[in-house]
Amino acid sequence: MQRVLLLLIALFSFDAIKSNLEQYNLFQQANRQVQAGHYAPAIQQYRQLLDRYPAGLLRCEAAFNLACAEYGMKHYRRAAELFAALPPGNAALSKTAGYNQGNALAMEAFRSRKGAAQEALLGRALAFYRRALLDNPQNADARINYEIVLRAMQHRQPPPPAPQGGGSPDGKGQDGGGAVSQLILENARQEEARQMRKYFKPLPMKPSERDQPDW
Predict the structure, then answer these.
(1) How distant, in Å, are the alpha carbons of 29, 69, 166 from that of 38?
(2) Among 111, 62, 101, 53, which Cα is nearest to 79's?
(3) What's the pLDDT at 111?
(4) 94 has a pLDDT exceeding 80
(5) Segment 9-45, tens digit of pLDDT
(6) Between 202 and which of 4, 60, 86, 100 could a Cys-Cys bridge form, CB atoms 3.0 to 4.6 Å apart?
(7) Residue 148 above 60 pLDDT?
(8) pTM above 0.90, yes or no
(9) 54 DSSP 8-state letter
(10) Residues whose CB falls within 8 Å of the CB of residue 104, separated by 6 or more in sequence, listed in order
(11) How far is CA 102 from the centre of its chain?
(12) E strand or H helix at 67
């Protein structure tokens, strides 16, 4: 009886090790695709890993990297949803996912949304950057992105009403400086676009977390 029990334990241990190795190999294959810039096959492999091992040891890391790969494909709304649904199990990744979710929401807002929908997305992005700054006040990326999004929201606000009565000193009336104001606003928007391309990138997993099996 004791020999049978030991055999069952050995078989169970072998199956567990085999499962862990399969998960790790799939995970590494997908990571290499991401590093090569091949996001579409990486997405497929991450999803395969998560479907095959929904309670696996690497489910949190795979879900995080899947969201980053979707972001790389410019599927910003889908990336935001995946960052929001990140499985528990890795506190550091959960915090980073919040910041990345802010990036995805901001990019979705700047890319294709207008009016109230854009303002709502930008407001949600601000909330995630604010949370990231509360967690780490030294987070320079979160602070820069917060300022970019805040300025974008302020530019969307209607200008204050002009004072009543009188005219401008140059005799052109209240709208004399309208062209200059529009130029300043356009320059600010172009600067925001440059900053957005520079900073609005999802934070990847650290190599030490990505390359080491978690068992």
Answers:
(1) 11, 9, 62
(2) 101
(3) 85
(4) yes
(5) 443 455 667 788 899 999 999 999 999 999 999 999 9
(6) 100
(7) yes
(8) no
(9) T
(10) 67, 71, 76, 77, 79, 80, 83, 202
(11) 6
(12) helix 59-72
CB-CB contact of 77 with 108 (8 Å): yes
Residue-by-residue DSSP string for 100-164: HHHHHHHHHHHHH--HHHHHHHHHHHHHHHHHHHHH-TT-HHHHHHHHHHHHHHHHHSPPPPPPS
Q: How far apart are the first and last CA of the chain?
A: 30
Q: Each residue of 191-204: pLDDT tens digit? A: 555 555 555 666 66
Residue with tokens 């407001």: 123
* Side chain identity at residue 58, one-letter code: L
If you search the block for the tokens 């309208």, which residue do you land on? 178
Closest CA to 96 of 54, 123, 72, 129: 129
- For the record, the structure tokens of 203 come out as 């934070």
The answer to whether 67 and 83 have CB atoms below 8 angstroms apart is yes
The tokens for 61 are 């890391």
Percent of the chain residues past pLDDT 70, beyond the cut: 64
The residue that leads in pLDDT, 164 or 80, is 80
